[in-house]
Amino acid sequence: MDAIETALKGVVDAGELAGVVTLVWRGGEARVCAVGWRDIEAGLPMQRDSIFRIASMSKPIVSAAAMTMLQEGRFALEDPISRVAPEFLRMRVLRDPDGALEDTVPADRQITFDDLLTQRAGLTQAGFYSGPIDAAHREALGPDLDSPLSPDAWIAGLAGLPLIGQPGAVFTYGRATDLLGLLLARMEGAPLEEVLRHRVFEPLGMTDTGFSVPSEKRHRRAGFYGFDMTGQLKKLPTVPGGAALAERPDDMEFASGGAGLWSTVDDYLAFARMFVDSSVKLLSPETLALMTTNRLTDPQRLGAKMFGMPTFGTGSGFGLGVATALDPATASVMRGKGGVGTVGWPGAYGGWWQADPTNGSVAILLMHNMLELEQLTAGYGLGGYGAILEFHALATG
């Protein structure tokens, strides 16, 4: 039993996680560790090919699909998105993100594709603010992952809500990548999953990634595990907050490019390798460099917060859909901590990854650590966070 397996087994045995799968790729070889259970009640062990909801780890994939279209000249970063979505031609901005919905000013300029890719569009989502904008998002857009709205109706609903920041001014994490994905689909005249399949999944050989899990693969899904209010592991029927249905209907049109994908460690490796392995030809070297270079100003980086906590700190920045390490000493582990240019972006359900071009390595951890926000603030589920930190130390040390 190696050090990674020993460490993760300790977290599982302590009842802090149901199960976890990790992968470390270096020098063309992948080392995989599967610990714990994908279904505790049924006695089904976690396996290398277990399939997980990867939440915001979806964002880099959708952003990469956008970059394939950028390098084809389908749009420019400075293009206003109203070119594709006239619904966003005239936006309003809240004076106070927690203030009244009617207390707005006109947007200084239009939202651009650069704004979407860098999370500077002024968009938020339900659960991020306590004011009226929170309820307005829930009412206008429905559940985060499985909205019953058509893509066009969802776009119109989002465009009808005020922004929480001026376009380009601040890093405001929210529905930007969801909107980006639907705009790519509109430009291609095809559902988002078809766009991703054509532009990313098939070229990279990602056979287990999509917005739902086919019936013949459902036995491989990792169960959803969170905690009851006493801190005991508990199997959940679906994700926290009712963001998704237990089973996604086959006829559902909306797809969340920001958080809706399922995947495996091997599929995500196929994606992440493009940042460290020049034999992966999805994006040109110039496009990769553009994607992985920090685009935030220092005030935008240092002022960015998520649930009241710094998003980046002093050593990390954000490019076009991925975080990037600027200072190896102070970069955030959760955003990717390695040599300069290490990229990554985690997922709310416990997924984490990074790709370090300075040593050609990729590290991936997938788990279902499903927490309600109030549980996290109460200190439940911190074992999952600790597992990421320990895995990072062992995988990169």
UniProtKB/TrEMBL annotation:
<dbReference type="InterPro" id="IPR012338">
    <property type="entry name" value="Beta-lactam/transpept-like"/>
</dbReference>
<dbReference type="Pfam" id="PF00144">
    <property type="entry name" value="Beta-lactamase"/>
</dbReference>
<protein>
    <submittedName>
        <fullName>Beta-lactamase family protein</fullName>
    </submittedName>
</protein>
<dbReference type="InterPro" id="IPR001466">
    <property type="entry name" value="Beta-lactam-related"/>
</dbReference>
<dbReference type="InterPro" id="IPR050789">
    <property type="entry name" value="Diverse_Enzym_Activities"/>
</dbReference>
<feature type="domain" description="Beta-lactamase-related">
    <location>
        <begin position="7"/>
        <end position="370"/>
    </location>
</feature>
